[in-house]
Design brief:
Blueprint: E1 7-9, E2 15-17, E3 21-22, H1 28-41, E4 45-47, H2 55-65, E5 73-78, H3 85-99, E6 104-109, H4 119-131, E7 135-141, H5 145-155, E8 161-165, H6 173-182, E9 185-189, H7 202-211, H8 215-225, E10 229-230, H9 237-244, H10 253-260
Parallel strand pairs: 3-4, 4-5, 5-6, 6-7, 7-8, 8-9, 9-10
Antiparallel strand pairs: 1-2
Helix pairs in contact: 1-2, 1-9, 2-3, 3-4, 7-8
């Protein structure tokens, strides 16, 4: 078993670290500190979004880390209000300026917002930016099969990634199976759930004790062994380092099944068909 973080292959020929670092709900100043700590810890994938209000902090953290930009897989997301062909191009320029970079490795449509019906034009703008070399890979977030089917039917281009809410008590199995059928990488947001309830489950407490790890590390290992990209977030340096120390142990088949059995259909965020 290797202590080295694994990489995942995308359907467009690109690759990305399977374990990344997320900065949701971290302000600009603290995002800079957290990203610098994460990169110095060994993370090489950073996930932000325009709506998080911390793209500048992320860029500052990258600059301060001493890690070359070429070694970092950087993801950001287009917010709902900026969907549409021309508005997407403008919003992307603003994200680049805040991040202090001239390209991103992965750009995601944050939500489909189907009632606005702009995600197809948005996707076409994404493809233009990819063809110009300013986005290395194009993807989506929180898309359902119907939304994905439409992108494929209208453009013939399959997203490299769909970033979705996913944790042991909300496994999204039908959507994950759709991804597997179409060669889309599943990326998990809120991978540890929220509020700590998941991490107090007796099966998790027991597995953590057995492996000499924290419950959070066991859950992250579950994501990795399912083949998901995963982006835990923290502002605490010790927790940032702890979340990275998940490559020196493995869960056996029985443990994976026990965690799969926590499925409760417990969605934390809004349903993608309802958020506008």
């Amino acid at each position: 078993m290797s202590d080295t973080p694994t990489q995942l292959d995308f359907n467009d020929g690109k690759r990305a670290p399977q374990l990344g670092f997320g900065v949701w709900q971290i302000d600009d100043v603290h995002a800079a500190e957290a990203v610098e700590t994460a990169l110095q810890t060994g993370y090489r994938s950073i996930d932000t979004a325009a709506i998080y209000g911390n793209e500048k902090g992320v860029g500052d953290g990258i600059a301060r880390s001493g890690v070359a930009r070429s070694e970092i897989f950087l993801t950001t997301k287009l917010w709902n209000a900026d969907q549409g062909y021309d508005s997407t191009l403008k919003a992307f320029e603003q994200s680049l300026r805040r991040l202090g970079t001239d390209y991103v490795d992965l750009y995601l449509i944050h939500w489909p917002t189907p009632a606005k019906d702009r995600y197809l034009d948005t996707w076409k703008a994404f493809l233009r930016l990819r063809d110009e070399g300013r986005i290395r890979s194009v993807g989506v977030s929180n898309f359902q099969p119907a939304h994905l089917d439409r992108l494929l039917a209208e453009t013939g281009v399959t997203p490299a990634v769909n970033q979705i809410e996913l944790h042991p008590d909300f496994g999204q199995r039908e959507l994950v199976a759709y991804h597997a059928q179409h060669g889309i990488v599943t990326e998990s947001w809120s991978p540890l759930g929220q509020g700590g309830e998941l991490l107090q489950q007796p099966v998790l407490v027991e597995l953590a004790k057995r492996h000499g790890k924290s419950a959070a590390q066991v859950v992250l290992r579950w994501h990795l062994q399912h083949g998901y990209m995963v982006i835990p977030k923290s502002q605490t340096p010790s927790r940032i380092r702890e979340n990275f120390e998940v490559f020196d142990f493995a869960l056996d088949a029985a443990a994976m099944q026990a965690l799969d059995a926590l499925e409760a259909g417990h969605r934390i965020g809004p349903h993608p068909d309802q958020l506008q």
